[in-house]
Amino acid sequence: MASPVEKTYSDRQKAPSDTTRVSWLERVRYYLPTALIFVAVLLLWEGLVRGLDIKQFILPAPSAILDAFMGSLAQMVNLGIYTGTEALGGFIIGCALGIGVSLATSRWTTARETLLPLAIAANSVPIIAFAPVMNNWFGVSNQFSKMAIVAVITFFPMMINMTRGLTLVDPSALELMRSYAVSEWKTLREVRIPNSLPYMFNAFKVCSTLALIGAVVGEFFGGTRDALGVYITQEAAQFRFQNSWAAIIIACILGIGFYLLIVALERLVIPWHASVRKTEE
Length: 281
Hints:
Elements: H1 4-51, H2 62-71, H3 73-107, H4 109-124, H5 127-138, H6 143-167, H7 171-179, H8 184-219, H9 228-237, H10 241-269, H11 274-280
Helix pairs in contact: 2-10, 3-4, 3-6, 3-8, 3-10, 4-6, 5-6, 5-8, 6-8, 8-10, 9-10
């Protein structure tokens, strides 16, 4: 017969697995309603299209879209890789420029007063105005023209959020650093940048969706057949809307995957932040 101490030790050894099991059950319970609603919408969509005999060029049935998707899966993957490369490249360029400008604007008031109006003006211009200009500058078939469009779109949210994170610092923390005669560079590294990380990842999440939107919309104005936007417009022009919807599925998968990658990176980099702890709970 096991002693009380051995029994307590055995219970503690089993506790992690029990906790893991409960955690998985909670996650399943959390996502189950969403999954059920998604399936119900697809079934309702399929039933309405078949029951009302809606023409395929008006609204394809989910089964027709799935057939088109699986029938050209290799092509869909290539389309996703091509447009995903444009979105990722523009995302990196736009976010890097946004972070760099925010570091300058948070340090020097003159830079803030000069660059902020320019950033607001660039953000107020719609994508359809930038696309022809970028295509003319870099070439219609050049992927960098779409990356430039994405960079312009992602620059403003990144700069604004990062600037807020660098400037909205607890005054007592700054006062403490000044009392120890800490340099501005060390204050930036030890106080301002850690404070800005949650703001930065919020901007990354926003920019991850904007990047894909900018890349696809930019392709509507010209490009190669390997691009998602070009493929969608050409298939729609020939009334093969089930193929267009299949390409839209690829765009959705890219957007969701990109967003989830940012969320995973956020949990890895700032596990101490309240929003991450709350999500894990």
